[in-house]
Write a structure and sequence with these properties.
This protein is α/β, with parallel strands linked by helices. The protein has one domain: Rossmann fold (3-Layer(aba) Sandwich), CATH 3.40.50. Helices cover 48% and strands 12% of the residues. It is built from eight helices and five strands, in the order βαβααβααβααβα. Strands 2-3-1-4-5 form a five-stranded parallel beta sheet, with helices on both faces. Helix 1 crosses helix 8 and helix 4 packs across helix 7. It is globular and about 50 Å long. It starts with 12 loop residues before the first strand and ends in a 12-residue tail after the last helix.
Amino acid sequence: MTKTFAELGFPGRLIAVEGLDGSGKSTQVHLLLKWLEQQGGKVFFSEWNSSALVKSATKKGKNQNLLTPTTFSLIHATDFADRYERQLVPLLRAGYLVLCDRYIFTAFARDTVRGCPQDWVRGLYSFAALPDLTFFFKASLEVSLARILDNRPVLKFHEAGMDLELSPDPYESFRIFQGRIFEQYLAMSTEFNFTMVDANQRIEEQQGTLRKLVAARIDLPKFTTAKAH
């Protein structure tokens, strides 16, 4: 699929945020969600790997390190397809503004770095329309790593790419793994028309930029529920 939801005639609009682990994208999309809700927006939030259908299977597979790169990819594709058909498409048909913390580009970047063929990964998600607006939070590896470690003392096994045996040191493995993912994102940025956000900036500055860009590119009054008189 090479068309956005708007180009396909959906009344709703989908905004996606992408970035490395620790880039701050989740913080920003939640602040954006609150801002839109405060204005009475018809808005819905969805995040990667959150389908009740497969979440427990993914968690078990990760905990026991049972997942091959192909299995990883297929499980995430199943999760996405379930949310896409049950949540995203119905809400977009109903005229909602949908915010997604990660979209198909996460799979395109991560699964390719884990060794899955690029064409095969893209084929898995060929049913999905493109977002109407995609923000990419461009943060340095050092900033991303520092933000993760601010919240918890230890890196997660798969987050650091330890399953790929890039380095016995989880911090070095993180830098290599996330660095490769970053290169994939940069390669996709022009092809999929990403809007780049300087994620090294302060939270308030980033949020201000986001709100201005969303207001400029999305007809927000269209997604505001009518106030009772």
